[in-house]
Amino acid sequence: MQESSLLSQAVQDIKSVNPIHGKKLDKSLGEMDERYFRKAEQFLSKYESYASTQGKDMRYGIESYLTMLDGMLGEYVHFMRTDEYRCKSSADAYASVYSDPTVMEPYMHGLLFSQILWKHHYKIYEFFTSSIAGYRGRVDNYLEIGGGHGLYLSEAINTLGSDTRYTMVDISESSLQMAKTFVTDGDVNFVLSDINDYEPNEKFDFISMGEVLEHVDDPKALLETLAGLLSNDGTVFVTTPTNAPAIDHIYLFRNEAEIDKLITDSGFRIKDKIGIFSEDVNKDVGEKNKIAMLYGAFLERA
């Protein structure tokens, strides 16, 4: 791993508690380029500043990340034994996770760390950041659904600029509070609501929805809701994983083809897409062995 003071210390702290996962991080980060290490340092520096405003520090983020890993291990064992996710409905997820700050807050901090520590998360993030620059000057209003920690929203603001109007809708008060303090780059309308109940006064030129489809009972209905919120020439960026058990994952996508079909059946056309497995395997091996894959795509109306 190349030298990056905050990143190196974070990985060392993780290795001291979970050496097996630490070895995986060493291997993954050993494949990264200089751009990654610059971005990682910027990200962790911003996290450190954000955490201090909450009376927390880097160690809290690392502890939250390790707690999240422990929870995911339990979900993975259940998934491999039963071939299904443990969480059965969005109502269950809301009751046990989203409405409980004692669960949701550390979970969001842990997920935030995964954006930079997990290779497949980082590569999807890079796919978004490298592509959204092409929309500069073309987006009057931007909607983020289930924005969570606000990392993607922050990137959109920095790229699209102050002439764009920004809205974030999330069902979790904890997520909104985190985004409000993490996203310091622009003026955002934060809305606490289920997206199916949200009734804006305008259509949106760009809608981003990262890792939400797996959290709902009916992902097709959700995509159709997005279509109703999108302007005629608008674009949707969506991500979702396959075979990725977690405490709040409900809908199980088993392979990339299932996601493609859902998208086209919902009235969209795929403009560009990418799929990254969490392990270094090819598509056939990954799908056969139920290795988690993160899928990302830019969509337009069919």
Number of domains: 2
**Structural Rg:** 18 Å
* Main pleated-sheet profile: 7 strands, mixed
CATH topology of the largest domain: Rossmann fold
Enumerate the spans where pLDDT stays under 50 for 5 or more consecutive residues.
none
Topology summary:
Layout: H1 5-17, H2 19-29, H3 34-53, H4 58-82, H5 90-98, H6 101-117, H7 119-132, E1 141-145, H8 151-160, E2 165-170, H9 173-182, E3 188-192, E4 204-210, H10 219-229, E5 230-242, H11 256-265, E6 268-277, H12 283-288, E7 293-301
Parallel strand pairs: 1-2, 1-4, 2-3, 4-5
Antiparallel strand pairs: 5-7, 6-7
Helix pairs in contact: 1-2, 1-4, 4-6, 6-7, 6-9, 7-8
Q: Can you describe this structure in just a few lines?
A:
Helices cover about 50% and strands about 20% of the residues. It has about 300 residues and is an alpha/beta fold.
Description:
With about 300 residues, the chain is of the alpha/beta class. Strand 1, helix 8 and strand 2 form a beta-alpha-beta unit. About 50% of the residues lie in helices and about 20% in strands. It has a seven-stranded mixed β-sheet with strand order 3-2-1-4-5-7-6, sandwiched between helices. It folds into two domains: about 110 residues, no CATH class; about 180 residues, Vaccinia Virus protein VP39 (Rossmann fold), CATH 3.40.50.150. The model has no long low-confidence stretch (mean pLDDT about 95).
Features:
302 residues, alpha/beta, seven-stranded mixed β-sheet, 7 strands
